[in-house]
Sequence to fold (146 residues):
Amino acid sequence: MHRISVVMAMGVVALLVWGNPAHAYVLSTGTGSRTASVTSGQLLTVTGSTAVFGSNAKTSDPPVAVSAVLSNPNNFRRWAHTVTAVFSGSSKSGCTASAYQINGSPRTVNTAVPHGNGTLTVSGISVSLVNSGCKGSTVTLAYVVT
Fold:
């Protein structure tokens, strides 16, 4: 009878060791290594529309909406977190950045741009006229993607 109890107890211990993967992992030893190549690829490119203010534009007019198109030339998706628009220039002499208000920038995107020349259009950015002396101008923006 004593032998049967000992054999059963050893069987239960063996079952617990084999049936408990965490315990088996803690008791295992060894080393290993893996390597993987990572390529940075090409940056996303951005093209954007301009804000055109008519010759009768007023500072009280609604802002002019602009959009940015993000392009991905890589063969993998590339993530875009934010798009920031900044004043780049005005077609009217003497009209500087202070003559315009850029609204909605930086714009949170948090979207992957599809691969293989995929594009993503970002809207929600606009430009307001602050100085009425700059009516009849076209505003160019520069865009930065992070």
Observations:
- The longest helix spans residues 2-19.
